[in-house]
Recover the amino acids of this structure.
């Protein structure tokens, strides 16, 4: 299995063969997670610390379940009650944790690049659970696994990513991953929600939803990131849904077997019609949640293997 990474900080650092390796392993963990006994000992004796500086339900609980099913000792650090709230810097926090000799550190932070900075200061494997507007690699990987299982492939598909592109780390990670796997990518949304330099991303840009969805295999809706907005990016939620919210009429322009995705949490009636979100024939939103646990298990398993090998080489060097 080809996976060379020491940390999982973003999709940008991964090669296509590494993405395929991770997804193949995740496939096996999907099967494990559907059994009555869902545990393995891949991370037995290892310690996993989850540090979430931003609120999270799906990602944090998914990483926690993934670690426990792999046999790790899992600790969720209560950031709101930690020394960070007393003024401790991120680097000092990293050094403190490093002194406890964890093996895996899962971090979500509101600032882009914070997770990479932390990874430079610790001796364990670090997984980026989302940093600012930068990346959310495991979300893109679970989206890729969902697409591959539903469509039978992860190449030569037309994927429409719709909504708040400018503020979305999910969009950035998916752009990188889907581009590496040779897909046709369309970005759909109002000009106010498109990032600067979007024309350099190598994808098609639409501000008309119906035109952008024409012939699409995959429709990926994004949440309006209201917490990252500091101005009037949309006239109103009602107007936004009328023009850019996904409903049956707009979806009819995509292929008849097109699947509908959303990273959650959803704003029903703003980004997506609730009836469509719950349509088991088109929506794969709940499958995305299931794939998330399997992908995070695979990511931690592969990083732990590399960490063990690195420590083994270091020990052999010491003995020599």
């Amino acid at each position: 299995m080809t996976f060379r990474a020491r940390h999982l900080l973003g999709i940008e650092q991964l090669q296509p063969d590494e993405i395929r390796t991770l997804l193949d392993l995740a496939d096996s963990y999907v099967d494990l997670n559907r059994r009555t006994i869902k545990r393995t000992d891949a991370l037995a004796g290892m310690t996993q610390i989850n540090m979430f500086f931003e609120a999270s339900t799906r990602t944090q609980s998914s990483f926690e379940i993934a670690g426990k099913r792999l046999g790790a000792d899992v600790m969720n650090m209560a950031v709101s009650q930690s020394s960070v709230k007393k003024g401790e810097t991120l680097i000092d926090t990293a050094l403190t944790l490093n002194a406890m000799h964890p093996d895996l550190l899962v971090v979500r932070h509101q600032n882009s690049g914070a997770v990479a900075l932390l990874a430079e200061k610790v001796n364990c494997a670090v997984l980026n659970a989302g940093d600012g507007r930068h990346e959310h690699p495991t979300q893109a990987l679970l989206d890729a696994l969902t697409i591959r299982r539903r469509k039978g492939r992860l190449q030569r598909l037309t994927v429409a990513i719709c909504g708040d592109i400018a503020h979305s780390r999910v969009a950035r990670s998916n752009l990188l991953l889907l581009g590496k796997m040779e897909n046709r990518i369309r970005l759909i949304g109002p000009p106010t929600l498109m990032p600067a330099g979007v024309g350099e991303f190598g994808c098609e840009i639409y501000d008309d939803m119906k035109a952008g969805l024409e012939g699409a295999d995959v429709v990926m809706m994004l949440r309006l990131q209201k917490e990252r907005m500091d101005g009037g990016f949309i006239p109103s939620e009602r107007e936004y849904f009328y023009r850019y919210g996904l409903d049956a009429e707009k979806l009819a322009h995509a292929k008849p077997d097109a699947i509908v995705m959303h990273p959650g949490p959803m704003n029903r009636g703003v980004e997506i019609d609730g009836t469509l979100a719950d349509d088991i024939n088109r929506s794969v939103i709940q499958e995305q949640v299931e794939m998330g646990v399997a992908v995070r298990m695979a990511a931690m398993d592969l990083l732990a293997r590399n960490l063990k090998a690195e420590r083994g080489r270091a020990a052999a060097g010491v003995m020599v």
Summary: The chain has a mean pLDDT of 92. DSSP finds eleven helices and nine strands in the chain. The first strand starts at residue 47 and ends at 52. The beta strands are 47-52, 73-77, 104-109, 125-131, 158-162, 184-188, 204-206, 218-221, 259-261.
